[in-house]
Queue: 3 jobs
Job 1
Amino acid sequence: MVSLTDSDSTSDKVLSDLNRLSGASSPYLRQHALQPVAWQPWDEEALLKAQLEDKPIFLSIGYAACHWCHVMAHESFDNPEIASLMNRFFVNIKVDREERPDLDDLYMSAVVALTGRGGWPASIFLTPDLEPFYAGTYFPPTSRYGIPGFSQILEEIARLWRSDRSRIQTQAAALTDRLKHHFTVVPASHMVEPETLVDQALAVLAATFDSQWGGWGDAPKFPSHAAVALLLRNGKRREIPHYLHMAEKTLECMAAGGIHDHLGGGFHRYSVDAQWQVPHFEKMLYDNAHLVLSYLEAWQSTAKEKHRHITESILNYVLRDLTSPEGAFYSSEDADSEGLEGKFYLWSYEELQKGLSAEHLAFLKKHFSVSEKGNFESHEPGHEGLNILSAKAWIIGEPWDTIRKILLEKRSRRIRPGLDTKVIASWNGLMITALAKAAFYLKNDVYRDAGEKAGHFVETHLLSDEGLFRIWSDGKASHPAYLEDYATVTNAFLDLYQCTFNRRWLALAKGTGERMIHLFLDKKNGGFFTTGEQHKHLFARMKTVHDAAEVSAASTAALGLMKLAWHCDEPAFENAALTVWQTGAPSAQNAVQGHLHLALFADTLQHGFTEATLRPGCTAADLEALLEVLRQEAPLNTLLKLERDPESSDDATAPPQTNQSTHSAVYLCLHRSCLPPISSAKELRRRLRNASAD
């Protein structure tokens, strides 16, 4: 195939004039650069083109690992006849949702408002004034599955634009007004107590829990870090075994199911069935970061080694397969390889029979239900007779360890799914937090070094005098960062400080948090906008507290600012954080399950953090003894800092000074009540254990 950069090719030059995606920073957009559709990136030129040509806009939003995005691309966007309709009647804009979460959030709200559900690809039709009037997700090229065909939709909208435009404009204006109202969050007329939302969330989780397979509600099922954390913390604190059971049952069923990559580690994005057996096979960095924290907290709460095993297997997968040479983390692995979803992860019975001994094959048949006819339930062509490794129960040890090594080696010879190599600030922040916490609690220097290396990458390549950038791709930073980026990076720098006690990370966290308040805080009504002063705003500047495909950026920001307030002893950080609660809590009560991260923040407001200030003594050994107790007994959301000698250097990176005349001690505060300094490891352990039962 001739490259688009080949200036001697006339046909390629014409294609380049029509399709402007070849120079895009997003690998996902570049996947569409050779299609016959005259794709435009979202920029001033494309928007002006719609105005000047008086055409509606077809906006397609997706991401590199999205299976149904690839299906629609192949069926419709590669189709010359459909492309001709698109080019004749529309200005066609392609957006990577991971680069532009603002556009994705705004227009996905239109998809949900018009259809009652969301998902990707998002297919939205806009007026030249950018107001949505028709939307959906995947459309087949011709009508099937009860879904209208994309070609028919194009023709009908083109006809209405010519013959009944006022009808379209009226519908667009009404929907736009509705969305503006949806994104307007103001201080409530009444206060909600944090324990009220926490209790409501726990009640909803108990009522919707799937007692057979774990998780909540019906298929499709997604992992929920906030649900697991709420249940683990309240189960232990309130001594309610059922809360702990719901969290553990969910984690165990997920680890046993096909959503978990039993060979290579890591988890796929979600399961299409209730049993966690049949996943959509994309692997996302942010999902795996949250799952590290879920399994790590489960290990802390139960001391069961299987939870630690999964924690380590996820991190080992990320460090092996999703880490750039510079130490940053890539975004995702595709669901598809060789044109078939899940092909990299599925096995024919013949493959297993040839590669394994009779004893090992019998083990897979017994514990993973592999069979000659296949156990993978799918209606897609190409999946017939294939098996997925989905166990009846969580398995560790022999002979599985040997079988796993054999199959992993065989799988390594296959063509891997596509890798989206762009680096996203917010997702890197999440993984840095996961590594830093795992490094501290598991006492693992490899995880600490990887977290610090990624932190240095963010500092060096994504932070500048102008602020934080969201994207690093092809050696360049781009796209001013959003609230979610500032929030997760602030938390990541704080967690690196708590893991290393290097004050440089604390200084970076403080600076990032201060800039976040400056750019995103609604200084009139409270709460945080998802876009900053540096972004161009459309018909609505969004301010939300609900969770969507990713967790609430506002709740993440609030948690980070509460932590900063303690570390820096600056109430302004806490005051900004509390406005998120004041503006968001009333609406959260009406849809608790969509606000679980706000409920997790409410849990922190209700009970406070476990706060531990370490004062180094005359030897490193007694300080290490206290740290070891904190690793074993302190909750995952404990705040840690190392006391500095007031006469030591003001250099933020200076190492802590030991006091040559005293023993090391911990100043421990529990439930907003501080205790006398504790120098005995035994006494510290007793205090922490008693606190967890209070």
Job 2
Amino acid sequence: MGQSLIEIAQTLKNTTKKVQLIYAFNGTGKTRLSREFRLLIAPKSIETEEETSIKILYYNAFTEDLFFWDNDLDSDVNRKLTIRPNGFTNLALTFLRDQGIDGNIVAHFQRYTNPFLTPRFSPDFSEVTFSIDRGDDQRISNVKISKGEESNFIWCVFYSLLEQVIEVLNIAEPDERSTGDFNKLEYVFIDDPVSSLDDTHLIELAVNIAELIKSSTSELKFIITTHNPLFYNVLFNEFNNADSRYGYKPRHGIKSRFEKLNDGTFSLVEQHKDSPFSYHLFLLSELEKAIVSGSIQKYHFNFLRNLFEKTSTFLGYNKWEELLPQESREAYYRRIINLSSHSKHNGEEISIIEENDKRVLSYLVGEIKRVYDETFEPSAMDSSAKEFLTKAINDYNAMFRTSYSADSKEFQNYYRDLAKRVKSKEVDLLIVVGMFLTGFDAPTLNTLFVDKNLRYHGLMQAFSRTNRIYNATKTFGNIVTFRDLEQATIEAITLFGDKNTKNVVLEKSYDEYLEGFTDVATGEARRGYIDVVKELNEKFPDPDAIATEKEKKEFSKLFGEYLRVENILQNYDEFTNLKALQAIDIHDADAIEEFKETHFLSDDDIASMQKISLLTDRTIQDYRSTYNDIRDWLRREKSGKEAESSKIDWDDVVFEVDLLKSQEINLDYILELIFEHNKKTKDKVALVEEVRRVIRASIGNRAKESLVVDFINETDLDAIQNKADIIDLFFTYAQGKQKAEASELIEEENLNETEAKRYITASLKREYASENGTELNALLPKMSPLNPQYLTKKQSVFRKLTLFIEKFKGVGGQL
């Protein structure tokens, strides 16, 4: 349970340490804490609102409000900074005037800003004007200084006062002091002195403050709060160093972190480490906590910008925006700049931001974690870790005959070589800590074993390593977790979608997909696999009988629904078992018992499975073939005049091409099927019919139907001894046909032979024909582009070339 600000202030008061250094983020409430502490130490009189005595000197954002510009608005000539009178300013400025130390203020101010910029106090110290004195009697008077320079000046007034106060109080006997105005002074509270200084001057300021505080030998106590990590770290180190001149020791100080909790209360956490805390890691932690709780505010973009700045410096980037995702770098940069811009009192500001901005912040937090994790530097490892890495690389070198090492440059070469071997399936198992979890793309990657607490962007990135479809071998990836990541997964999915996304992305139970369910997100009833299969069997028992456009559309929607639900069911072992059961003779008791033992099933399980009707492999192939035929027909026919006369709206039909590709039948399988079928039947007519059905069910091989059929009819299949021979024979045959048909096409269309062969070779290599560039124009017969027949000829030739490329891509050979 946290504390109130008053309770935190009381904790500060009760501390016996000479120095309390406190780190707190903007928006935490440290400025309000300084005010609560002041009221606790020196309560104001209810009637006069003045301090009853000088028990505390404090500097915070509101100190600057005591100085304001009184401009000559009519002629804009007499510009002056006016000091608002109150108990503090009256006492402080009178003291400074009487001590005659306005020169100290000027010296400090010029050191932190501009050596020629000179402030001048009025005789009563109630006003200040500024001029630029360049020497040789050259002066620019009545200068209006910037807001940053104004903040510097006000701090220099306070710092000069503090110097004199410490010097006065260091005199042990009160009677011997030059003034008794500060005899009751107990505390100095400094909240973020100057935020406009560059790093060099900020470090100088921190060193000067630390030395000044150490020089105080009285009972005066100091509290410093800051949101600036660099300022905090320098002070941390300085206060950890003893100073024998003044008898200061590190135990005289305490370092803490001031936090605002989710319930609106506060906590003060002591920093026990001997070195400055890793503020960038804590910053990241604060951002992640805000993401988890859904309490992202505008000031969190200040945290994000700070995180990018510090991480970019650590990683050696020239500009922090170079860490932003490249695809929308400028847009992200502008958004961060706009949302991290803040007023003087931004620490008090709480501003609700748009949901899209929250998603952007969450995404960018994940991106910077990815960059940090992937930027691995071996030189930063300790000796034990580097020794282990060296052994691992030596084993790798022995296995693959390479010569990499754990040195920085060679490690990157090792990393690239390893990535290449993983993608080419030379490495089967990879154990990683942070690398390869983001940005690494290997479609063959099948399973991710997770023994690490992943969250948000990191979880989504890591899980996505396995989500690439890789033909029929891999239709989905597997995630095996050794930790409970269910809630983290739900939170990540919810964060990067809307509040209902988890109901869409997280899979239902096997029974729900089998029998149907109600969609929580939309309220719609979703049919299960059983109902879809039943309707397919009832409405389309013979797909060849589908004739009308209405029937084509109805079948396309229904079979697309089948492909989607069947693809999801493949994730479940129960469905795998169900499909495997189809190959078992249910009347063979021994086979059933063996099946039950292998798949850990009971008699009741077998009985339930036998009630479920599956489509046969042959029926699925027929449906796939018809589905592909309709897709080709729609693309071909709807580009012509028929599109104008059709009354059927196809906009709600989505052809599941990716799902078809995920179960793609490769050419080698078709050729092996030819070999096996011929061994059994020796009937080429039946063989051709079977092969046509299989090829038409394949998206990638449909164009090769005539090529494969011609091979069957023109080849003595009985003379082929094994599967390897039929594959070799087919490719030899196909390469010969490719060469002959290319020559025939060139002659028939009167094409430029050299240019045509160059175009066809390039197209076969990239596996598609293209109209881009000048290559297509170069192969056409000589004809003026102004000739009305030119465009018609070009389109006709391109169509024929496209069909040729689709037919012969992948067969190899030369033209």
Job 3
Amino acid sequence: MEKIRKAAWPVIFLVVAALALAWLPGCEVLPYQEPAQGMAVRYDFVSTVDGLNLPCSIFLPSGYDPSRSYPLWVELHALGGIPLIDNNWMNIFSNSMKTVANNNQWIILSPWGRNLTSFYIDGVNKDSGPNREPNIVDDMSSLSSWTPVGGSWSAAGGVIRQSDPSSSWKELVRKDSHGKDYAVRVRFREVSRPGDVSAVGVNLRRDPATGDCYHVDLYQETVNGTTSKYVRLFRLSGGSWNLIYQTPYEWGPLTPGDPWINLRVGTYAGYLKVNVNDKPVNLQPGDDCTPYGDGRDTPEPPAAGEVSVCSYGAVHEFDELRVQNEHQYGERDVLDCILQAMEKFNIDEDRVYVSGLSMGGTGAYVLGIHNPGLVTAVSPNAGASDLVYDYIWMREHFPRNYGYPYADVNDARVPDNWAAIAGKEDEPGASLDTPLVRDNSARYVLENLANMPIRIVQGLNDSNFPNQCQNLTVMWWKRESTTPGDRWWLVEAPPPYSPATAEFANGGDIHSLLTAWSSVGPYYSEYNTSPWGGHGFMEPYDVTAAFFRAQARNRQPTQVAYKTYDDPVSSSYWMTMRRYAGAGEEAALARAGVDRSAATVQAHVRNVEELTLDLSWAGLALEPGSTVTVRLDTDTDPSAVPVADKLGRTDLVLVHAWPAVPGMRVRLDGALLTPGVDYGLEGVRLRVPGIVLGRQRTLTLELPSQAQANLLPNPGFEEVNPDGSVPGWKQVVLSGGSVRLEDHDKMSHAGVRSLRVKDPAPAGSPYTCGWRSERLAGVQAGAGYALTGSYRTRLLRGASVRVSVYWYGASGNLLATGTAVVEEAAGYSTHDWAPFHLRVQAPAGAVAAEVGLETVGATGTSGKGSVWFDDVQLCRLP
């Protein structure tokens, strides 16, 4: 036993110490404010789904200069905790991260997430179906959706007020809030308190017939001038208040100038957790608490019910109640924070790195496999790479309530969280082998790590997410005696649970596969392990930083790949695929490679209904008289998990500024295809439908020897004057106001530069902000013209994207304008490069033209976010 205990010490130190730091004095040093250089702060971004504030810990390096671009290091926190980065001088983890950030001049972003147990996975939608949960976002500006039970309730000024300060509970029940596994959030403030005692809280799983419920409140009492505050958990049954737990907690506003306090109560799989201002509250006494939890089991009824807010002993105001399934947006919330950080700060788009430990390591895998082109490199530490298998493993080797002296829970409730994410929380023993879980398991979609270097850090003796197959020591928490307050020790589990044999090594097997694939594709993996390392095994941050420092995004890779089990449409750089809906639980997989010198693309697809290849983005410079060859087959190897093709065909779409002259010939396996019958050409999209893939198929496109000239100067914006202006282009802001217009060397469709329009905020409206070409002479009245190019967006809202051609007469007067709104303003828009196309006719008397690349807004709107334009052409049609 002594030997095992010593071997466990590194695990105890790294995992327990990291989590325990949250309770040490000085750990509250994380001011809620605008980010500032040289210090860690809490700063909230906003969910693009439902407007919820998303807290993040942010560190700007010393000497931060907003005119410079900085790499972004995204560090994902472990299960149940908040990020380790703070200003506590005792926090060695934070100190090390800040040293690395200062030395490398990196920005650190650590998203908290709305759910600290999300595993950074977007779980199932529970708005309907057998596991339906309420999805309520109520701004509390009206009482129409509420039922008062006692008290004096009124709605005014966008809030609901309870005005009776008497010493009794008053309740306001939200209609249509019945559910079982959900999170309740509410903002409140205390307006006045005439007595010495007050409390405010929420009731959940409330039985509408009896009022029985679980009750959480923030309680305060003043005795002899001293005020004490607590968080309390009760079970109300048959009129009796049964105290489950009470803990001292200095709850209060986030900032002195803002009286509002945020209370969150989440209940999943019979386990209840409380957060105040998004920070977890420990509901376990010190002698019962293990590092694997701060909530309480709630096994007694009611198991489901409605939600209410309640007030005692004071006048309280309430604002914005949410009752939601918070497992739905784990990855989406992190992406929102990353993208908004990229809008707020000057981020080097070619250097976005993601790392994390345990749950954060799983998140690093998830962010990497789903976001090629956004994430540059990842480093998962002790992450789960096969949730399907790891769920079975944890259920088999970490049984609940084994008995004294072992802890009741040794699996950190990881399987419970995964079951809730997959929508299987009501199916004990059910398999998690679903398309959603496979899509979030790196082992199943490992192909997606093409062009994304990975450094895997995982101890060989990780018994949570096993990393070796033979003689694995499974570790449980155990008390050494019955003495109250005695410590927990991490020891070897009793037989038959340990030693154990696993079928899959999470880190080692992934590294082996990627290393084997590196000889045939753009895969690169590094691996750091230790025979003594358990689930807490980590490497120094500066070692991880050295790996990241050597990586930069390749904007135009020659090989791309993507695999998905449940996404309808997916992209990897210049390749986009639409999954065949009839594939059932089979994956869709596409690989493509380009040989630029031979003007050839080789694509391999299975269960892909439509494959789109952007040839310009792939780096093909198609000259007049040249031939482009695209070969298609179903040979998608290598693949970690084989894919059975249930479709046997695909529609092929090739995107390019096709020559505006007749004479192009398209052949399939040598047979000449008829335009309008065998293929279609609409603007920049050439579509060949229904290509059967029983064998390799060869599509050739013979371009005509002549091509119409591009009338636009500097169409790829690669030329820039010493003063920063762009030859051939000018900035245009109509209606006044502010906008950021820049040539951008960190985002490009081809080449290295593009034109950007950011945050159009007009003084008047409607408005037009963007770029305008110099006046182009030689226009022929009555002739047709085609305007083509590419654009991309990031968090663009309140503005539409428009391209225009302005026609001028001999005297310089504006005769007419031809426009195309290529994207209407609607919520948040974020997408990679997409083509645009506008066909216009020069009016009578036209002798010149200007091209506009613009954002436009209607009356009363102000735009936010960014749009980029690149590779623009204006050609005369024959």
